[in-house]
Amino acid sequence: MLLLLHSCKSVFKVSPYKTYLNKLESTGLSKTKMGKAWVSNGEEAVRNPLKEVSIPFQESIFFRESSPDALGYIIHYSSARKVKFKVKTTADEPFGVFIDILERKDQLNNLVSIQSADTVLFYEDKQDKTLILRLQPELLVSGRVDLEIIDEPKLGFPVKGASNSSIKSFWGVDRDGGVRRHEGIDIFAKRGTPVIAVEDGVISRVQETNLGGKVVWQRLGLFGQIIYYAHLDSQLVTAGQEVKKGETVGLLGNTGNAKATAPHLHFGIYIGSGAVDPLNYVLMKDTVPPKLKSEIKYLGNEVVINRGASSAVPVNILSVSSEGVSYKNEFQKLEYSEKLILLSKKPSAKIKTARQLYKSPVETSAPVGLFNPEKSYTVLAKTGTFVYINQEDTKGWVLSD
Ligand SMILES: [Zn+2]
Predict the structure, then answer these.
(1) What's the 184 CA to ligand 1 centre distance in angstroms?
(2) What is the tens place of the pLDDT at every residue in 189-214?
(3) Which tens digit of pLDDT belongs to each residue from 166-179?
(4) What is the pLDDT at residue 277?
(5) How far is the CA of 174 from the centre of ligand 1 (A)?
(6) What are the sequence ranges of the domains in the chain?
(7) Is CATH 2.30.30 correct for 346-401?
(8) Which of 58, 205, 293, 324 could pair with 289 as two cysteines, CB 3.0-4.6 Å apart?
(9) What architecture is the 164-282 domain classified under in CATH?
(10) Conformational region of residue 240, where left means phi above 0, alpha means psi within -120 to 50, and beta covers everything else
């Protein structure tokens, strides 16, 4: 499934997420322990996202049916770019993940909301925004979700066969001894190289000026940006002509005030009242995310990590990204760390009498079984006066002697 989403259009009346919430309410599931956790974890993911993502980014998540988790990410969106989200699930029984993109201003606005097991969606907008992405599957599903976030320029590159390294003069540098500033970027290439339309649009003006020489102006959409191609050797379009992205509008040269310079395209973008820096609209960036952290081998498993000198606790690995690891700690709270330090030497402890096994290392936590001193057991972790043991496939915390 491929979705193209623009936030200015509302693509849903009631979001799939809200529909599911309503379903939990009407069936009474929202009052169960699991249902409550699902609702509050979803809220928490949006209220306190675990991390800010630097794009390109990838992460693998393992959701377990026993634990209704949700993950939140902060993404700084630049209006010069479009962001590509790829979400894919792998499970015995395929399940849909709720993918919600929200914006936090005075209140939370839901910009995108879908439910899918395998999707690619593009997000683009006219304004810079701080976005929150939430991923959360339905209740009672188990499986892996792979997320990839890639950043692409909003527009195509204007010089055929050229790339970033051909851009040699940037926005804002002095021109005419500081009298004016450079309101664009210069892309150098051989004279006669095709200059191509960066997007579909209509040619609004074809003219010759002292500054720009042979220039072409293109309008993108009715109220869209105006694209300015200057110093052309020749213009190959006429005013009023519709062009498609990639079509040649002229050939690269050094007309106008570029006569004394090597042939290059002066490329500009005008929005509303004036020029904006066009660089990020065309700059190509790495589209392959850094590889996942080595902790990926523990995804979905329990590992014991060091917590200071005399403390080691079991954690459940919920997700591993190219930047860090998120896990449920010994109190079943979600935490994030760039690196996990695993316990290298198993602790030891003697427990001589029968006693309660707890879910967490506090006496107020839920009992998970009973410790039997007659049977063998393994000590896995230790914190304070509590010891984490495994006895006949039951794991729990027990007060040490
Ligand atoms: Zn220039």
Answers:
(1) 6
(2) 999 999 999 999 999 999 999 999 99
(3) 999 999 988 888 88
(4) 96
(5) 11
(6) 2-153, 164-282, 346-401
(7) yes
(8) 58
(9) Distorted Sandwich (2.70)
(10) left
